[in-house]
Fold this sequence. Notes:
- This protein has 2 domains: 5-105, Pleckstrin-homology domain (PH domain)/Phosphotyrosine-binding domain (PTB) (PH-domain like, Roll); 126-219, Winged helix-like DNA-binding domain superfamily/Winged helix DNA-binding domain (Arc Repressor Mutant, subunit A, Orthogonal Bundle).
- Helices cover 29% and strands 27% of the residues.
- It has 6 helices and 11 strands.
- It has helices at residues 86-105, 114-118, 126-133, 158-167, 174-186, 195-202; strands at 5-14, 21-29, 32-36, 46-49, 54-56, 68-72, 78-82, 143-147, 150-157, 190-192, 216-219.
- It has a 7-stranded antiparallel beta sheet with strand order 4-3-2-1-7-6-5, with helices on one face.
- Strand 1 (5-14) and strand 2 form a beta hairpin.
- The protein starts with a strand and ends with a strand.
- Residues 111-119 have low confidence and may be disordered.
Amino acid sequence: MEPQEIREGYLVKKGTVLNTWKPVWVVLSEDAVEFYKKKTDRSPKGMIPLKGATLLSPCQDFGKRLLVFKITTDKKHDHFFQASHVEERELWVKDIKRALTCIQGGKKFARKSTRRSIRLPETVNLCELYSLMKDQDDGVRELVLEQEKRVFNHCFTGATVVEWLVEKGKARNQPEALMLATGLMNEGFLLPAGDLSKDGAGGGEQSTFLDETNALYYFVSR
């Protein structure tokens, strides 16, 4: 049975011989990361096995080159990838971490299904809800927030999201608002920004959105 493909897209990769950085088409499967010279190529330029591998993000080995993450194989070979923006890097890192965890635990990678796991009603349109939340006049306000001497731009708290959903009539109560917010996060419309919210998103079999004033989140650009 062929390994399940989890994520694919262009990233910039550091060469192992010439040390140059070039865009490659990257495909993450359950047990490996393959990279191609271009999307239409049928054979990969290289393959990184994930069994026994480790992941480091952010990787700050290259000074001013930002948004880099590093995969180190069990044979201690380093592979460096650079994303074009923070949201892209976080999505890749999140899926690679889950793939590594599944390999270590002997489990099969299963992408979170919002409708199955938290039973969102079929009438809920998360894309439409995301657009309403992003509205400049009547949506969730994006702020500059400081937490533990770190500054987060264009962020908002989990409590703000839950309160907005109830006030705007998108949810009947706090538990329903929390369910919707979790759905938005699991489907990639919202991402955690601070340590507390990242712990909630990465813990256990199912991500958890936190209805707290010190849990920070931000919108994914679409």
